[in-house]
Every structure is written in structure tokens, then in C-alpha cells.
Design brief:
The structure is a single chain. The protein is mainly alpha-helical. It has 2 domains: 26-51 and 140-210, no CATH class; 57-136, no CATH class. The chain has 5 helices and 5 strands. The longest helix has 38 residues, at 182-219. Mean pLDDT is 73; it is low at 70-120.
Length: 224
């Protein structure tokens, strides 16, 4: 029996013809994503995060390691499916050690020799120590970007009022933690503003509808 992670139709309760999400903005999934982000910030990270998506630090770190490894043919750092090659940091769920021209592989702190074996340099130690944590933060921040970007003035019109209030509670919580980089924090605050605007719009519409209904009942003349 296959695990649910391999079930391509799990998202649609095994009925993709009936339960569809053509634009990927399903309110329930967005709220679930916001809740996960909120939990991660409060229970896992619990500290201000650096913006690894835009600051180029990962690229700089891997580039220094590659430059210092030129004679040996390159270095590959693998820890939990993380491989660094030149300026590229590749993410994988799991898998073997990556390699570049028979260089040096570092797996869980052990050094493996290849045809171009050479002494471990300071930059390689630095990369092995810092890159796994940096990539975890990078992946988390990309998740924040993806989920928050799905909240816009058009998408929130598909939300019920209950869903709007749930989404607002989560975006407010995310913003109030103060743990996200400024760019992402601004996006979370912007999402809260969009949701509030939609709630206000619906409340005003309801007020106008109530006024029309009362006027109709008082006059006995109703315009449809």
C-alpha cells in the first residue's frame, strides 16, 4: 500500500473530478499553510530570521568553498539531502552524496577521498556547519512567500466570512511575532490588510442590504 505522500489525488479526497482547485488558492489550504507558518515561527524558530532568499549569503558561501577547492576538483557537502555545487545549493528530500569531478565529499562530518583528494579547508568546514541551517530557513521563507502570495483582493472573495476571520487571525499572529525578515513581515501585514478590507467590504454591503430591506418593508414597495 502506497503512503499518502505518493497519492496524487489525496488533496481532492480521492475525487479530483468533484473537488478541484484550479488556481491553487483554495481557502482551506491557504489557512492551513498560514497556521503551519505561525506554528513554525512560535514553536520551532523562536528567533528573528535572516532573509536568505534575497541576501545572496548562501551563494557567496558556496562560491568561496568552490574557489578554495579549484585544485582538488570541487567539494560536495551532503547532510540530509543537501548538496552544494559551485554557487548552486540543491535541495533534495533524500539521496546520496553529490559530487564534482572526484572531489571531497563530507557526510555527517566524515571526509571521503576521491581522485582529487585534498585537505579540508576552512571554507568547507564553514559551509558544512552553516549551510544546512541556512537552507532550512531558505525553504521556510520560500514557503512563507508562496502561501502569503495567494492572498490577494480577488482570491479572498472566494472565502466565507469564517474563513476570512481564520485567515486574519493567522496573518496577524505571523506579523506580530516579529520574527520574519522585514520583507516577508511586510507581506504578512499586507495580507492582513487585504483580508480586513474584504471583511469591511462585505459588512458595508450587508449594511446597505439591511437598509434597503427596511425601507422596502416600511414603504411596501420593493425594487428588485
Amino acid at each position: 500500500m502506497l503512503p499518502q505522500s505518493l497519492n496524487l489525488y489525496e488533496y481532492a479526497a480521492d475525487n479530483p473530478l468533484r473537488y478541484i482547485d484550479p488556481n491553487g488558492f483554495d481557502p482551506a489550504e491557504v489557512i492551513k499553510g498560514l497556521s503551519h507558518i505561525s506554528f513554525q515561527l512560535q514553536e520551532v524558530w523562536q528567533r528573528p530570521l535572516e532573509d536568505y532568499v534575497t541576501n545572496g549569503k548562501i551563494e557567496n558561501l558556496t562560491s568561496r568553498s568552490a574557489a578554495n577547492s579549484a585544485q582538488g576538483g570541487g567539494e560536495a557537502i551532503a547532510g540530509g539531502g543537501i548538496v552544494a555545487v559551485g554557487i548552486y545549493a540543491l535541495l533534495a528530500a533524500s539521496g546520496p552524496v553529490g559530487w564534482v569531478g572526484g572531489g571531497v565529499g563530507i557526510v555527517g562530518g566524515a571526509t571521503l577521498g576521491g581522485s582529487g583528494i585534498h585537505g579540508m579547508r576552512k571554507s568547507a568546514k564553514e559551509l558544512a556547519a552553516e549551510l544546512p541551517e541556512m537552507l532550512k530557513i531558505y525553504k521556510f521563507e520560500k514557503e512563507v512567500e508562496d502561501v502569503v502570495s495567494k492572498i490577494n483582493p480577488m482570491s479572498v472573495r472566494e472565502y466565507t466570512m469564517d474563513e476570512l476571520w481564520l485567515a486574519l487571525a493567522e496573518t496577524d499572529t505571523i506579523h506580530k511575532t516579529g520574527l520574519l525578515p522585514q520583507r516577508l513581515d511586510d507581506q504578512a501585514a499586507g495580507a492582513s490588510a487585504i483580508i480586513r478590507a474584504e471583511i469591511d467590504r462585505r459588512n458595508k454591503e450587508k449594511e446597505e442590504e439591511d437598509k434597503r430591506r427596511k425601507k422596502c418593508e416600511a414603504s411596501g414597495v420593493c425594487l428588485i
